[in-house]
Amino acid sequence: MSYLVPPGLYAIGNPGPTDPVTVTANYKMSYDLVRQALEGRNIWLLVLETHGINVWCAAGKGTFGTGEVVRRVEASGLARVVTHRTLLLPLLGAAGVKALEVQQRTGFTARFSTIRIDDLPVYLDNDQQATPAMGELTFTAAERLVLVPVELVSALKGSLPILAGLYLLGGIRLGFAAPAAFLPLVAWLGAILAGAVATPLLLPWLPTSSFAVKGALVGFLWALLFSLLTGTGSLLEQVPLFLAMPAVSAFFSLNFTGSTPFTSRSGVKKEMRISLPLMAGAVLVGAVAWVAVIFGAFQ
Amino acid sequence: MKGFSYLKNVATLELDKDTCIGCGMCTVVCPHQVFALEGEKAVIRAFDACMECGACALNCPVKAIRVDAGVGCAAGMINEWLDSLNLRRRGDGCC
Known about the structure:
The complex is a heterodimer of chains A (299) and B (95). Chain A is α/β, with parallel strands linked by helices.
């Protein structure tokens, strides 16, 4: 399946030389949503080559950037198609596009419009004036929910070798059909759900501003629930559970920073520096304790 | 950003008030309303809301803003780190 749209100038409706020009990325979803939102209007759509990446990520990379805007304006002959000299850019493109330089090199004034595509029609009807809300990022429960499947799939993919290892080790000792051999898999999958699903959804209500701490807390609650449900007994059996589950959940929560629209590079760096060694240590000690449990080293 | 805040006092954002000409471009491009115009100059009104996207510094016509711009993504940073150790095939992974 291709997520690319050929870059260039597109017409929505039947636009003339005085109709506005909006700019977007050649990620198919961006293109489709813009077309949908502007259906029934006459408007030009300039699609930049971002190699199928959305506006925000491409702006961060620089592919939704000044050079590409200039190149695309020239290649499409836009100056001969419209008589006005204004480009309407998505606000989140500002991290890659220097408006002043676009004007100097093409003669077109680059105006940053709205963050969300849905706000574009109102922006256009409002004389191309943005309301404060149009320039303000949000991260509602629905906006977080749509990101969860991607997180979940990538967490499960990365966990496959670990799940295989857990099952193999447990199976050797306990028998491959023994229910107890599946418990570690359930525990690990639960920790993934804690970190990649529960934490993102509960994000604003979990304490502290650290993603790792939020995730560790949910992971701890999962360990508690798992312990109560399975009735794991000895202290040594609790060690892997209460060390590894919070660490695994914290790791996947920290991963979610990349999907949020408010975490800074410096903040994530700081969090990683402190929490990654702790997570690695907790998982390592937990793994050693678990092996000790199933192979009965201390019995 | 309403309802969300990230770690405090970590952003690398700096605004040179003497250089600022008060054009207001930073207040337009910032998606977290970090800047406000006070009189003839921009001020940083919400330092901890900065996510270091770099839109303000890029679009400041007089280079009065400095920020170490980048993406706040743990997976991306782990990948960069693995790349620097030559432990990963380059070019895979997320944005």
